[in-house]
Write a structure and sequence with these properties.
This protein is an alpha+beta fold. Helices cover about 25% and strands about 25% of the residues.
Length: about 375
């Protein structure tokens, strides 16, 4: 499979501006997950999922455990499973097509399996979404961001900005805030790549809490001489607020390195549950060294995030020794590692100790 997209044009004209339908954006499309695999995963791994049923044109969530397709009938339902790339290797490999975007901005890959008459009810997402059509066909409609809000699962799509039937390999980009809906004409799979978004107030609160946890001191503030004398002592003037704002900005600049570390730690963690690595013994560095030299491949846990700022690397919130940044970069970029890729550090005790610790945490496994 190959992406056939002019990303520069996409970012300039569409990203967070307006929806766009991209016909055959993926060539030689191969469905990464089959309906049967999805059913088995949800049941055996007890994955969090949502069953959506359509009755008389309205969509409803079904609040009961999913026990398979057999009891659901042939029409008017959809199964939604989030973060499928955490549980299915082919889905994780499919997501790697989109590494043109930074890893930290891709929140999750959600999959929908819909039968005829099923779909996604009218909704508005607070984040940007790329819809990739898998097997089968589904019709998607996107309204204007300024259109009437959704009430009771209804929305006016009479003047839809996009009204297209998607088939395998087609893509639809929906910026945050644009109402949309989908209905299936046949059994089909749709993959929705959701992008990260957060609230500035929540981010500021979380960051300042991390400062408090580490006993960071703020900047002591007192008014400067040019703010003290005035005719009306009861008035707070604009320059008073500007002075406070500048003090806060100065503190932010002063704590830039801490902000970088906090952000990298936060974004290297996923909002979704990580799977557990296959059961294995607790390794010693010498055992890891031997296994790599014997040609045993090392696999990264599906869904695991590894990010860096400069030479500082972070995995699932943990910081790593920056002395081996080039080697950590190899592990960050590849989901499967063989001994030859680490031959230059396989006799470095400090690196092998830290790699062994990560393996024993279940982040990588043989």
């Amino acid at each position: 499979m190959h992406l056939i997209i002019n990303w520069e044009d996409f970012l300039q004209h569409h990203w967070q501006k307006r929806p766009v339908f991209l016909k055959k954006a993926i060539s030689h499309f191969i469905n990464p997950v089959s309906p049967e695999e999805l059913e088995k995963l949800v049941i055996e791994k007890a994955l969090e999922s949502q069953l959506i049923q359509r009755n008389h044109g309205k969509y409803q969530l079904v609040h009961k455990p999913f026990n398979g397709y057999a009891s659901l009938g042939q029409r008017n339902w959809s199964l939604r499973v989030e973060a499928i790339h955490h549980w299915h290797r082919a889905a994780e490999e499919f997501l790697s097509l989109f590494r043109v975007f930074p890893d930290w901005v891709k929140e999750a890959l959600t999959v929908f399996f819909s039968v005829p008459g099923g779909g996604i009810g009218p909704q508005t997402k607070p984040s940007d979404v790329l819809v990739i059509q898998g097997m089968g066909r589904s019709r998607w409609r996107v309204g204007d961001r300024g259109s009437s809000p959704i009430h009771d699962g209804q929305n006016d799509f009479s003047e839809a900005m996009v009204d297209e039937e998607l088939s395998a390999g087609d893509m639809l980009y929906i910026p945050k805030g644009f109402p949309h809906e989908a209905i299936s004409s046949e059994a089909n799979m749709s993959y929705c790549l959701q992008f990260w978004t957060d609230n500035s107030l929540r981010m500021i609160r979380n960051w300042t809490e991390s400062l408090s946890d580490e006993s960071h001191r703020g900047i002591e503030y007192s008014p400067s001489p040019d703010l003290l004398l005035r005719d009306d002592p009861t008035e707070i003037l604009p320059q008073d607020i500007t002075a406070v704002q500048e003090m806060m900005s100065q503190f932010l600049v002063q704590k830039r390195e801490h902000l970088e570390t906090w952000f990298a730690q936060e974004m290297s963690q996923t909002s979704y549950e990580l799977p557990k690595a296959p059961e294995a013994e607790v390794y010693a560095p010498s055992q890891v060294q031997t296994l790599l030299q014997e040609g045993h491949p090392l696999h990264r846990l599906m869904g695991l995030r590894m990010l860096h700022i400069g030479n500082r690397y972070f995995v699932n919130g943990d910081s790593l020794d920056s002395d081996h940044a080039d080697t950590w970069n190899i592990l960050a970029r590849h989901s499967k590692i063989d001994g030859s890729m680490l031959s230059h550090v396989i006799h470095e005790p400090d690196f092998m100790e830290q790699l062994t610790l990560l393996i024993n945490k279940g982040y990588w496994y043989f």
